[in-house]
Amino acid sequence: MIQEECGVIGAYDFDGQDVGIDLYHGLYTLQHRGQESCGIVTNDYVRLYSVKGLGLVNEVFNKDNLPTLKGKIGVGHVRYGAGEDEAIPPIQSRYCKGTMTLAMNGHIYNYEELRSELEQRGAIFQSTSHAEMVMNMIAVARTHSHSVEAAVLEVVKRLKGAYSIVVMSPKKLIAVRDPLGIRPLAVGKRGNRYFIASETAAFSVLHAETLFDVKPGELIKIDETGVNHFTENVGKIKPAHCVFEHVYFARPDSYLDGTNVYEARVGIGRELFKACPAKADIVFGVPSSGLHFALGYAYESGIPYGDGLVKNSYVGRTFIKSTDAVRYEAVHIKLAALRGAIEGKEVVMVDDSIVRGTTCANLVKLVKDGGAKKVHMRIASPPFLYRCKFGTDIPDRSQLLAARMTVEQMRDHIGADSLGFLPIEAFERVGLSPDCYCSACFTGKEPDENI
Amino acid sequence: MIQEECGVIGAYDFDGQDVGIDLYHGLYTLQHRGQESCGIVTNDYVRLYSVKGLGLVNEVFNKDNLPTLKGKIGVGHVRYGAGEDEAIPPIQSRYCKGTMTLAMNGHIYNYEELRSELEQRGAIFQSTSHAEMVMNMIAVARTHSHSVEAAVLEVVKRLKGAYSIVVMSPKKLIAVRDPLGIRPLAVGKRGNRYFIASETAAFSVLHAETLFDVKPGELIKIDETGVNHFTENVGKIKPAHCVFEHVYFARPDSYLDGTNVYEARVGIGRELFKACPAKADIVFGVPSSGLHFALGYAYESGIPYGDGLVKNSYVGRTFIKSTDAVRYEAVHIKLAALRGAIEGKEVVMVDDSIVRGTTCANLVKLVKDGGAKKVHMRIASPPFLYRCKFGTDIPDRSQLLAARMTVEQMRDHIGADSLGFLPIEAFERVGLSPDCYCSACFTGKEPDENI
Amino acid sequence: MIQEECGVIGAYDFDGQDVGIDLYHGLYTLQHRGQESCGIVTNDYVRLYSVKGLGLVNEVFNKDNLPTLKGKIGVGHVRYGAGEDEAIPPIQSRYCKGTMTLAMNGHIYNYEELRSELEQRGAIFQSTSHAEMVMNMIAVARTHSHSVEAAVLEVVKRLKGAYSIVVMSPKKLIAVRDPLGIRPLAVGKRGNRYFIASETAAFSVLHAETLFDVKPGELIKIDETGVNHFTENVGKIKPAHCVFEHVYFARPDSYLDGTNVYEARVGIGRELFKACPAKADIVFGVPSSGLHFALGYAYESGIPYGDGLVKNSYVGRTFIKSTDAVRYEAVHIKLAALRGAIEGKEVVMVDDSIVRGTTCANLVKLVKDGGAKKVHMRIASPPFLYRCKFGTDIPDRSQLLAARMTVEQMRDHIGADSLGFLPIEAFERVGLSPDCYCSACFTGKEPDENI
Amino acid sequence: MIQEECGVIGAYDFDGQDVGIDLYHGLYTLQHRGQESCGIVTNDYVRLYSVKGLGLVNEVFNKDNLPTLKGKIGVGHVRYGAGEDEAIPPIQSRYCKGTMTLAMNGHIYNYEELRSELEQRGAIFQSTSHAEMVMNMIAVARTHSHSVEAAVLEVVKRLKGAYSIVVMSPKKLIAVRDPLGIRPLAVGKRGNRYFIASETAAFSVLHAETLFDVKPGELIKIDETGVNHFTENVGKIKPAHCVFEHVYFARPDSYLDGTNVYEARVGIGRELFKACPAKADIVFGVPSSGLHFALGYAYESGIPYGDGLVKNSYVGRTFIKSTDAVRYEAVHIKLAALRGAIEGKEVVMVDDSIVRGTTCANLVKLVKDGGAKKVHMRIASPPFLYRCKFGTDIPDRSQLLAARMTVEQMRDHIGADSLGFLPIEAFERVGLSPDCYCSACFTGKEPDENI
Q1: pLDDT in tens, A2-13
Q2: What is the DSSP string of C150-213?
Q3: Which of A32, A190, A310 sits opposite B251 (nearest CB)?
Q4: pTM of the model
C-alpha cells in the first residue's frame, strides 16, 4: 500500500458570495488525499481570512471559525506528509504586487537547484516547502512580467516534477497543471460560481457540474473578465498522467482526464482475471482500495463476490502498537477476517499493489487463520520495480519486494497458494494508454519533460 | 437508521500479567457500539488504575497513559449517548467491602422507582446514570449478602430492562446478563487469560477463542478459584435477544448466541429478494450497514452486486451542516452517488431500516440524481411500528413513518419506484426465531419478564 | 511557608437576577485560597447550571461558558490540593428532596468513622472527598428531618474538624460554620443580593458591604422568607479561630471575625520588633506574605523599610526544576536579591513562618550572595511544634525544624546572623486572644470540641 | 500605564554543553517584557532544535519538550503584541550560507520603505514582522559581504529605529544594539558559558556575572575564536537610551547602562517629593510599578510608607469584563483598596505615568471609596505629550490627557486633591542625563540618528 497525495481546491464566485463553506465541503471530499493538515484562505478584495491547522477537516474547522472565512475567492488544501518546519498550506505571502496565496499538490525534483539560485540572489526560506520556493520564483518573475499569470507561466518552464498549483492574488484565481499532467486538476461550475479541484468528486458533493480537465501545462485564470485559458505550455510534450491515481489515490466517483476511476478499477479487475484466473468459492478485496478490483474479478470470473475482511473504521493516525508479549500486528486491529464468509473456502483476495510485502503476508495469514482453505492473491497492478521521481511515495528499489524476488518467490514469501499481478499491457485495455499515462514505477521508462 | 449501543469488556489474567493493552485493543473492536466516551479501569490487588475520557478510543488513550493501566483484572467501556452529568464509565466507587468498578451496557426501565426507593433510605446520586443506581443497589444488597455475587444476583431480580453488566471487586471479575438476554455477552480465553465482552469480534482481534455466550440471567464470577457459573436466574423465562443486534448494532464478524451476524445478514438479504423480488441491473447496499443484505439479495436474485454509493469515511461527529443558501444535506457529504456504476440503470438499493424516512428519501434522490433510471428500495427489516422499552433508540410512534403510512404511501414519500420490507416471518428462516428473539418494535408483542 | 486552604462563595438575589458573573468575580478574589480547580453551580429554580475545571479561575471560565451560568442562587469554590479521584467541587447530587449542591472549605478528622457508618448502611462513595461524605450524611438526616437546614444542623453535631459549608437546595442557600469557627465565613449584601464568602475581601470587589461574620456553629438560611439565623449550635463551646488565617492564608484587605488582616500583620510586625529588636540599615519582607510584618517592624523600629527581594510573578504551578549540572534552586527563579537595595548593608528579613527551614536557608544565602553584610531573620509567628488536626498543611513533627533544634541551632542552620520568633503572647496584644483563637500548632493545646 | 516590550536572550557554551535549560530560566526572568508568545531555538552544529508557542514561559515549555533543546548555542525570545500573521520568534530561516535564527526586540520605523525595496527585487514576506524583513536584508547583504557579521553591520546602517537583535548562524552567536542604544542589551558569563540578554536580571538568576553593556551600535560575535567586538557603528552619534526602561519596563534588579533600576526609581521618588511635596499620613505606590517611587517619596518626605492597594496576582490575560448591570471596572478586580491602611487618612499615591487618565481616575475613586480622606496623586514621570516613533506603545497625541489639559484640569479630571508630575530636569539628578537618554515623549525633541 503506497501513500496518499495532497489535494487542492479553489473557488471564485461571480456574484460576490462567500465561498468558505463550499471550500470546506470540498476539502471533506478531498480528505483522502491528505490527513496531516488542512487549511482554507479566502479573500474579499479587502483582506485575507484564514483557518488552518494540523489534523483532519473535522478537527480543524468548526462552527466558530468557518463563518470567519469571508470573501468571494478562496483556496483550500489538505496536506499529506508535511515537513515539520513548514507553515500549514495554503501559504500566504505579500510580494511587490500585494498578497499571494498558494496551494500546491506536488513535488518539484529540481528543488535544490532552483532554491540555490534564489538564495544566491539573497532569498531566505522559512521552510523546505516546495510551495514556498515556487512563491519566491513567482515573486521574482513578477518583477519583470506584466501580470501574475505571465509570471506563473514563466516559472512553470523551470519546474521539473509533478504539480497542480492554485494561486490566489488580490483579484484573481489562477490554476496551473504540470506539463506532463501527472497530478489531476479539473474545473467545475454551479451557477455563477466556479471551482478548481484535484478531483471531480468534489464537484459532485458541491452540486456542481464538471466543465473540463485542465490540460497538461495549461493555466486557467478566473477574474472579473471571466474564465481564461493560457495554453502556451500545452501540447509540446506527451502527457504522462500518473496511473496510480486510478489504481490507488483517487476516489472511485472521480473522473480523471475523462476516465471514471470506478470503471477503470472494475475493468482492471476483469483484466486481472483474464491474465491470472483462479478457481475459488469467493472473491473479495482488501478494504477499501481493493474492493472494486475484486468486483471486476468477480464479474469476469463468475465467482461470487463477498466480504472476507471487516475493516475497523476507527483505527486512526494515533493507533498505538502493542508492546505486550503477545504481538498484535496493527493489521489485526484494522482488519479482521470474516470467518462466516471464508471458513473452509478457497478465496481470491485482491489488493492494489505490493510494496515491501509485509502487509500482504500479514493479510494472507489473517485470512488463513480465519479458516480459508486456499488463498489466491491477486494484485491489481504490475510489480513495483522503480522509485518515482515525481513524488509518489514508493521506497528505494532495495526495499521493493518485486525487485528482489521472482513471482514464485514472492508467492512463497507471502504464504499464498497462488499469486498474480496485472500485466502492464492491461492498462491500455481499460483506457489508460501508455501514450498518455506514466508507468515508470513498473517499467523504468520515464516520460520526456523538455518542453 | 437507528443508533448504537454501548460496549463492555472485562479481563482476568491467571498468570498475573497486565491486561490494560488487551482491553484497549478490545475497546477498539467494540468502538462501533459507542463513540461518545470510553474508559478502562484496572486493578492489581493494591489499587485501581484508570484512564477515561470523552471521545474515541484513539483520542482518549495514548502511549503515555496506556502503560499506567497496571493490574491483572480490568474492565472497559465504550459509551453511546451519555447524560451530561455523568461520570465517564466504568464508574468506580468504594463501599463497605472496598472498591467496586462497574461497566454497564443497557437500560433499566424501572429506574425511577428503584432510585426513589434508595433515596428514601438516604442515598445521594451524582448523576442520572443507571449504572450509578445499580451500584447503589449492589452496595445495599451487600450489607446483608454473604458475597458480592450474591448481592448482584439479588439486584438482578429487581431490575427491569436490558443490560450486560461487568463488575470488578478487589479480587473478582463478575459479569451478568439480563434474564431476557437482550444485549449480547460472551466469554473468551487466550492462554490463562479470560475475557468477557459484548461481542465475540473482540476475542478475534485478541487472538482469543470464544468459550461460550453468557446465558440470559446467568452470572459469571472469575477469581482465584476459577471461572464460576451462577444460574439461579437462568431459564425461568423465555429468552428475547434483540433482533436489531443482528440487523444493525453488531459487527459482521461477531457471533451472537451462536449465530454469525454476517451470515444472518446475507440470509436476510436472500429472504428479502424472495419476499420482494425486483428486476434490476445492479444491487447495492447503503454503506456500511446495508452492504451484506445487498450481497444476499444479489446471491439469491442473480442480479450483479456492485457499489452505488461512495462513503466518505472522514465525516465525523463534528461535521458542520451548511447554513449557506445552497442546502447540502449532510447525506451528500457522507455519501456520494457512484455515477459510473448506476448511470442509466435500474438499481436495487438495500438499507437496514426506515425510521422517519428522511434519510431514505435523500438517498433515493441522490441515486436518481446520480443517473439511476429506476430505484427499487428494499429494507432488511419489517416496518418499525413501536417504541422500544429496552432502550434501543427508536423515536415515538408519532415519528415513525410506517406508523402513519401504507407501504405504497411510503414508497411515494421516499420517491422510489418500488419499496419492499422484510416480512417478520423471515427472521425465523435465518435462525432468529421468535422463541428466543424479541421483535416488539415490529409487532408490539413484548416479552414476559417475570422470573 | 505553609499551604493555602480552599475558598467558598454563595449568592442569592431577591430580585431574581443572574448571580453567575458575581460569583466569578468573587472566586477571582478568593483565588489565593486554592489554585487547583474551581467551579460555579447556579440554579434558576428549574435546573442547575455548572462550569467547573482544573486550573485557575482565568483558565476555567471564559466568555463562552460564563453566560451559561443562569439563575438567582449559586455557589462557587476554589480548591486547594484535591484528591485525584474527586469530582471538582461544588459537588452536585440528587437526593430524596431534589438537587443538593455543596461547596466546603475544610477538613473532617473523624471522616473514616463517619464514612464507615454510612457504608454499613449501603452507601457508595465515588471519591475520598469529605464533601461527598457530608452530602451523604445530610441526605440520610433528611429522611427524618423536617427541612434541609434541620438535617444540616443535625449533621454538624457529628462532624469533628474545621469547615465552612455552603449548600444550595432547589430554593435555599444555606451556610454553616464549624462550632469552633476555625475557618472564616461572612455574609455581605449589595442591594437585594446577598453573598456568603470565606473572606470579606470578596465583598469589596463586588461593591457589597459586609453584614456580619457567621458565628461559630451558626447556620444561615437564605430563601424567599429572607435571611434566617439558626443558632442552636452556637455558643456552647469557646471559639478557636485559626490564627494562621491572619498570619498567612487570608488577603490583607479581609476582616476576619472583626479584625483586619493587614492591621493584624502590621501589629505583629511591631510586636516582633519589641520582642526581637535588631539594628539594621533596611528591613524588608519575603514577598508576598512577609511584607506587612516587615512594615510593622519598620514602623516600630524606625529602620527604613525597603524591598530586598524581587518576586517573579510568572513562576507558576508548572515551573520545571533544572536537571542541569548547575543547580538553580527554585527559589532563585522565584525570588531575586535586589542588590541595589541591600549591598553592603545590615538587613532585617521578615517571613511568616519556618517549617522545614530549607526555604529560609535558601533565602538567607540569596540575600548574602546579593551583597548583604548581615542578615537578621525575623519570623512573624512562634516556632511550629505540632501537626494540625484541623487540616492546615503542616508536616509531621519529625520534619518541623523547631521540634528538633534550639533557636540558636536553627539560626546556625539557616545561616542568619540572628534569628527571632514572635512570642506566643504577642497574638493577644494584636487582638488575636487565646480565648477565641487556636494556636495548637505552637502550643499543642487543642480546643475543646464537645458541644 | 504603558505597555511592555519584548525580551531576547542568547547563550554560547565554550565547553559544548547544552544551553536550553539556561535559556528557559533566562526567559522566565525576562517574562515581564512579553507575555504573548515565547520560544527557544538551539543549535548543536548539526541541526536546529526549536520549542515555541503562544502563551507564557510556563505554558509553552514543559518537562517533555525542554530536553529536546540540544546544543551549545541558542537564542530565546519573549514576545509582546505580535501581529496575528507572524511566525512565533525566534524566526528561523535558511539562506545562502545555511541556517539563520533571529530574535529581535524592537521597532524599525522605516520598515515600509525597506520592505518595498526588497519586494522590488522579488522577495516575498510571510508576515509583517520587522524581524522577517531584517532577515531578508541580512541575506541580501550576505550575497556580497564576506561574513554574516559584516552583513549585519551593513544592514544596521539602513535601519531606523530601536532594536536589540540576536542572530544565530551555524557556528556563531551575534548580537547587535541599535546605534542610539534605545533598548538595553548586555553580556554576562558563568564559567565558559556566555550570555547575551535584554536585562542583567537574567544573569543574576543564572548565577552569571554581568560583563558589560553592549555599546550603542556595537556588534558582538561569539564563536570558536572567542568574544569579538565590532565597533565601526559605535560613537558616531549621541546615545539616547529610552528613559522608560527605567520608569516602567525593566526589572528593579536590572542594571541598564550602569544604572540600577531600583536605585533610579527610589531616586525619582525622592525627586518627586522635592518637586511636589505633600502632607499626608501614608504614602503608597500603585502595584507593582509605582512601589519603588513611593519608597523614595517616603524616604525623602518622612511620611510613613505603607500599602494602600492589594493586587490580585491571578488576574491574567483572559480576564472577562462583566457585562452585568452592575459595572465592575477591571481595576476593581485587579486592585482592591486596603481600607485598614488608608481609612480616614490623607494619602499620597504614586504611579509611573498618566496616559489617557482613565486608570488613574479609577484608582483615585477606588482609594476614596476605600476611606481615604484626601488623595495626593504623584506621577513619577513628566506628562506624556508626544507619540514615540521608536515603538513604545504610547497612543496618538489626541488621546494623551496631558496634551489636552493643564495640570489643574487633569487633577480635576482624575478627582485627586492634588496632582504632581516629575519635572523633566529630575532625570538628570538621578543619573539619567539628557546627554544619553531620550525623553522625546515628554519634550518632542528627537535624537539625531544619522551615523
Answers
A1: 444 799 999 999
A2: HHHHHHHTT--EEEEEEEE-SS-EEEEE-TT--S--EEEEETTEEEEESSTHHHHHTTPEEEEE
A3: A310
A4: 0.92
